[in-house]
Design a protein that fits this description.
By secondary structure, the protein is an alpha+beta fold. It folds into three domains: 97-106 and 126-196 and 236-523, no CATH class; 539-597, no CATH class; 608-705, no CATH class. The protein contains 23 helices and 25 strands. Strands 4, 5, 6, 7, 8, 9, 10, 11, 12, 13, 15, 16, 17 and 18 form a 14-stranded antiparallel beta sheet that branches. A five-stranded antiparallel beta sheet has the order 22-21-25-24-23. The radius of gyration is 34 Å and the shape is globular.
């Protein structure tokens, strides 16, 4: 049992089924077979030519068979040579541009057209991209896909997970484990990170500046606007977290009333998520209109490079249907028309382009995970920066079937390891597989579930150069944390469809990236860790140091905060005073105080008088406590008396008495100053008391009243 102040680590074991490898997993069986076939296919004809000398044959083989054999043996981007060639050919046959305008089509390639639905009720699309997206309709907050699946999207508010203590993190993980055990079988968690939109806050400041009568304050607000523009254009990042549930029908159940059952099941799953995630400290947003929320989510996901709001987009789509004389179809406009982008370019094998924004996809392979991870380790990717989205796919497997497969594979691996030498690299590979199998089997026996975990990362940028830079920097970051990623080159379209919030990962990508894990291992991936403070109205404090999100706080918002109290802590020179002054200046535009409550900092000397005051300061630091006491006196004798009283109390029963009893007391004093400290431990244990004479300017009426 770990101590309360020790952070836990969790196990994500290697896949227990890693068949067909040699030399500790360095060489795959398929790659080895293909390399052998290539070498023989080239070598046999070369050696059969009698006109060539032996030297010439060796040179030809070194120039042809040897490099091709090495490439086939190693593979390309994690794929075997034959798979990669097939993937490239498939990409070349399917690359195209899907756009509203026919001029944007690639003339070199024949555009693939979707078969029109039969019947008069078939939807009429004016945007080919809307027809391309695999969504049939959205009703009751449920997404109906074209492959007859039912999905539900909910938005989750994150928490400050990384700032919690070890005990608090442990409790959150345990609560998340409880949720995973009763969650739907298939689930997708999606994290979207994009440049923060500060336009609304800027508009509020501009309206308030227009009402400002003081020219100096107008200048301050103009500087404030400049700060907003600089932060918004360069650094500020905003994140949204979503959970997508898929309805899983019971085996053997009739499909007569499947739709009603799916709606009820997904609504129940959403309510369950609200209750269980509340135990983790998270909130699940409950929208007023589920259909509007779902469409808006898909719109902001697919149309990230647009500034048009969803209502404006709806009006534009309706106007286009009217222009094309489709007034009768307005009530039956396909939902995809409202959130489909104007164009998707699949003509590049290493990235795609959606409305001028470039996307590249990275996959965490099954061997790219760390075996031991801390709680919330996915925050490394979540907080990586703007334009880096994360998709986590979780699929719970039938326990009985996995126990049977584990038993079979363990027996196979134990028989193999008997024939392997303990000095062979295959011995370590088999030994690791056996250990992983026993770990999983023991966990399943301890009431844990078996999951397959997949991670897909989407990187976005406005230019290709910036996209490549982001991809390289992200790879460096993950490699520095002992993680590995591979690109989805020539598989970008499949990766794009997998990244949609539809809980549907393409089969080839799924097989490459699936990693077995138990419930505790999946719970350690808890992703809701990037908390943001961004009120609709408030003042801009700056940027969050850990995730670059803008900190906009309205401390007078009683719906969010219990009161308007704040505490500012920091070392000397950290900027506490500057922060308070900055808050006061920026709060003025919010008309927090009435005009008669605002006082001029430099008083009028004709109505004010300077008087002497005495500031008593007593500071103490011990091994168990620390603090500072300040008091203001108008009379020196009273300040002196209070200082001596405080010193006598510490000498009688405080820290000074304790140091004197230990024969470790050191003292230094004069009339208005006293200092005591523990010998050799000044920084950890000391006490000071001092009186400082100050000049204070006050209105004459206050001095006379005193």
């Amino acid at each position: 049992m770990s101590k309360p102040n020790e952070y836990d680590t969790y196990i994500i074991p290697p896949n227990f089924i890693e068949g067909g490898t040699f030399f500790g997993g360095l060489l795959k069986l398929r790659n080895t077979a293909e390399a052998l076939v290539i070498v023989l296919a080239i070598g046999i004809p070369v050696f059969s030519v009698s006109a060539l000398t032996l030297t010439a044959k060796i040179i030809i083989l070194c120039l042809t068979a040897l490099p091709l054999g090495i490439i086939a043996l190693v593979g390309i981007n994690g794929e075997s040579l034959s798979s990669f060639i097939f993937l490239v050919l498939k990409y070349l046959c399917n690359r195209r541009v899907i756009t509203r305008n026919e001029e944007g089509q690639d003339k070199r390639k024949k555009r693939r057209k979707r078969k029109a639905k039969s019947g008069d009720g078939a939807p009429k699309y004016i945007n080919p991209v809307a027809e391309y997206l695999p969504v049939e309709k959205i009703e009751n907050g449920i997404i109906y896909t074209r492959d007859h699946r039912y999905l539900k999207i909910v938005e989750v508010i994150p928490i400050n997970f990384l700032l919690r203590s070890a005990r608090e993190q442990r409790n959150i993980i345990y609560s998340f484990i409880s949720f995973l055990k009763i969650s739907p079988v298939k689930m997708q968690i999606k994290v979207i990170a994009k440049r923060a939109d500060l336009n609304r806050h800027r508009e509020i400041v501009q309206r308030e500046m227009a009402q400002e009568t003081d020219e100096n304050c107008r200048l301050l607000q103009q500087d404030y606007l400049t700060l907003i523009d600089r932060i918004g254009a360069r650094e500020a990042t905003s994140r949204r977290f979503f959970m997508v549930f898929e309805y899983e029908a019971w085996a053997g159940r009739k499909r007569d009333n499947e739709e009603a059952e799916a709606i009820a099941s997904l609504q129940t799953a959403a309510r369950t998520a609200v209750n269980y995630l509340k135990q983790c400290g998270n909130e699940v947003l409950i929208p007023e209109n589920d259909d509007e929320f779902t469409v808006d989510t898909l719109y902001h996901l697919l149309c990230r490079n647009t500034t048009t709001s969803l209502p404006d987009r709806v009006r534009r789509i309706v106007a286009q249907y009217q222009e094309k004389e489709l007034e009768s179809e307005i009530d039956a406009i396909p939902c995809t028309e409202f959130f489909a982008p104007d164009s998707i370019d699949f003509t590049n094998g290493r990235h795609i382009c959606i409305d001028g924004l470039y996307y590249a996809y990275l996959l965490v392979p099954s061997t790219g995970y760390k075996a031991q991870v801390p709680a919330g380790w996915l925050s490394l990717i979540v907080n990586a920066g703007d334009g880096i989205d994360l998709d986590m796919f979780i699929s719970r497997q039938p326990k009985a079937r996995m126990v049977q497969r584990l038993g079979q594979q363990l027996r196979i691996n134990r028989s193999k390891i008997k024939d392997a030498s303990d000095t062979n690299t295959d011995f370590d590979d088999l030994d690791g597989a056996i250990r992983s199998g026993y770990f999983l089997k023991e966990g399943l026996g301890n009431n844990e579930d078996f999951y397959y975990l997949n991670l897909l990362i989407a990187v976005t940028a406005p230019t290709v150069d910036e996209l490549e830079w982001k991809v390289n920097e992200l790879k460096k970051l993950l490699v520095s944390r002992d993680m590995d990623v591979c690109s989805c080159a020539f598989h970008e379209e499949q990766a794009f469809l997998s990244s949609l919030p539809l809980v549907s990962m393409e089969k080839h990508l799924f097989e490459r990236s699936k990693r077995n894990a138990l419930t505790t291992g999946v719970a350690s991936c808890y992703p809701f860790t990037s908390y943001e403070l961004s009120d609709e109205n408030g003042i801009l404090f700056g940027l969050n140091k850990y995730n670059n999100s803008p900190v906009i706080i309205d401390i007078f918002n009683s719906k969010v905060y219990k009161n308007a109290n704040i505490a500012v802590c920091g070392t000397s020179g950290a900027g506490k005073t500057f922060l308070i002054l900055l808050m006061a200046l920026r709060m003025r535009r919010m008309v927090i105080m009435a005009p008669e409550m605002v006082r001029v900092i430099s008083p009028d000397p004709s109505v004010c008088k300077t008087c002497k005051v005495y500031l008593l300061t007593m500071q103490f630091t011990t091994s168990w406590d620390s603090g500072c006491i300040t008091e203001l006196y108008a009379d020196y004798d009273m300040a002196r008396f209070a200082m001596l009283k405080g010193i006598r109390e510490e000498q009688a029963e405080g820290c000074i008495k304790d140091w004197a009893d230990r024969d470790a007391l050191e003292e230094e004093y004069c009339t208005d100053f006293y200092e005591a400290w523990h010998r050799d431990e000044y920084s950890e244990k000391h006490f000071t008391a001092s009186i400082e004479k100050l000049s204070l300017t006050l209105p004459q009426r206050i001095i006379e009243a005193e």
